[in-house]
Amino acid sequence: MQNAFYTAFDEETLGGRRKTDYRSAFQIDRDRVIHAPAFRKLQSKTQVFLSGEYDFYRTRLTHSMEVAQIGRSICRYLESRGQPLRDNFHLDSDLVECACLAHDLGHPPFGHSGERTLQELMQPYGGFEGNAQTLHLVTETLYQNESGVRGMQPTRALLDGVLKYKKLHGEFPVPPSQHFLYDPQHVYRDFVFGGAEIPAALQGGLALNALKSVECQIMDWADDAAYSLNDIVDGVKAGFLTIERIERWAGGQAVDSRQQQWIDTLFDAIRGDRLEGVFSTKIGRFIQACRLHERDNFMAAKTNRYRFELVVAPDAEQEARFFKRLANDIIFESPQLQQVEHKARLVLSSLWNSAWRNYVEPGSRVIRILPPNVGALIAAEGALAGKARRVCDWLAGLTDGMIVRTYRRLFDPEFGSIRDLS
Fold first, then answer.
1. What are the pLDDT tens digits along the chain (422 aa)?
2. Strand (E) or helix (H) holding 310
3. What is the DSSP string of 72-106?
4. Cis peptide before 84 (omega within 30 of 0)
5. Which residues pair with 86 in a beta bridge?
6. What domains are defined for the chain?
7. Exposed e or buried b for every residue in 217-252, given b needs 16+ CB within 10 A?
8. What φ, ψ does residue 292 adopt, rounded to 5°?
9. Would you list the DSSP string of 248-303?
10. Sign of the CA dihedral running 178, 385, 142, 58
11. Are 161 and 213 in contact (CB under 8 A)?
12. Which of 282, 409, 304 is nearest to 350 (CA)?
């Protein structure tokens, strides 16, 4: 049965026509993401704890899989509620799943610590942003090869589904540290909007960043639901979150009666060893907190992806924000995680400086320390900002293990056997 929610405008692919087969356009998108090397690398990239440090904790890959499951469940739940959705007019769960699986592709090694370090290193050269880097991968580098093929030729709907932010780095009066697109990515923003002119009312402040397709909104809420709760579960298992630490933290907060109920529920779950089950139930409530409403904007007449928006019950949003704040204050600001931040700065900055001295502004003696294809990409760039972007791409594409091994080969005198060169 044809799904009238989407039209040819939504299914149009970047870079022209691509081969079609028994799969829908959005199923092809999903399969291309799953089979991409950058997706497999997520199994060795930090979510909260360093990849490999605790084998049963979440990585970027397992987190992305959980977000995808929540995203599909939101689609099914909204369809089960009936109007405005129906059998031949509904959200495509393959498209939403794909956006969820792809949403963290651009994140660098060492999690948020690595992202902050690259933001600082790239500030003079157009910035670094995890979401913008994801867009960079799906449009330009995901399946890059010597024949000139670039990116994965995504559909307009998928491209929009991962586009959490739409304001360019250069459109801010002061260069931001996060929540922007790279300036050259204006061509992909133009493609997403089908060439429509952005109203002046959206160009000031952060209004343009708040404008998201409904699939992107679902991905964003599924992401919030997953990491606001699952980071708590992993934090308790790792011993970072204890009842004593949470009590001390709560003592310094203005905790209202509803927030105290959430804390009491958390304590009961910890004492009863029922944390996984209790928080799984919370995820189910977060899914059922979703509704679909009509809205009006300059794209609403062109696609149902902007005619409708996801609305989440305020109580669920407040609870997610509360648990994110709790995790950030106790886990991410802990000495152990700050040590990871220090390591990320040391490793990324050292490798950046080595690449810069040998490829971007080389002296009389050049040492070829990068893979040949990376060196060729840097050499092909004429402007300094372009060369910096290529160095950044290389660093952001490394896994936790790859970047540590590379650092040790270059800076650890006792590491460097020919067997260590992989």
1. 799 999 999 999 998 777 889 999 999 999 999 999 999 999 988 766 554 455 556 889 999 999 999 999 999 999 999 999 999 999 999 999 999 999 999 999 988 889 999 999 999 999 999 999 999 999 998 876 654 557 789 999 999 999 999 999 999 999 898 899 999 999 999 999 999 999 999 988 889 999 999 999 999 999 999 989 988 998 898 888 899 999 999 999 889 999 999 999 999 999 999 999 999 999 999 999 999 999 999 999 999 999 999 999 999 999 999 999 998 888 877 777 778 789 889 999 999 999 999 999 887 667 889 999 899 999 999 999 999 999 999 999 999 999 999 999 999 888 866 555 55
2. strand 308-312
3. HHHHHHHHHT-TT-BTTB---HHHHHHHHHHTTTT
4. yes
5. 89
6. 8-210 (1.10.3210.10), 214-290+306-330 (no CATH), 336-420 (no CATH)
7. bbbbbbbbbbbbbbbbbbbbeeebbeeebbeebeee
8. -115, 125
9. HHHHTS---HHHHHHHHHHHHHHHTT-HHHHHHHHHHHHHHTEEEEE---TTTTT-
10. negative
11. yes
12. 409
Joined together, the tokens standing for residue 314 give 């305020």
The Cα–Cα gap between 212 and 179 comes to 13
How many Å is the maximal CA-CA distance in the chain?
Answer: 70
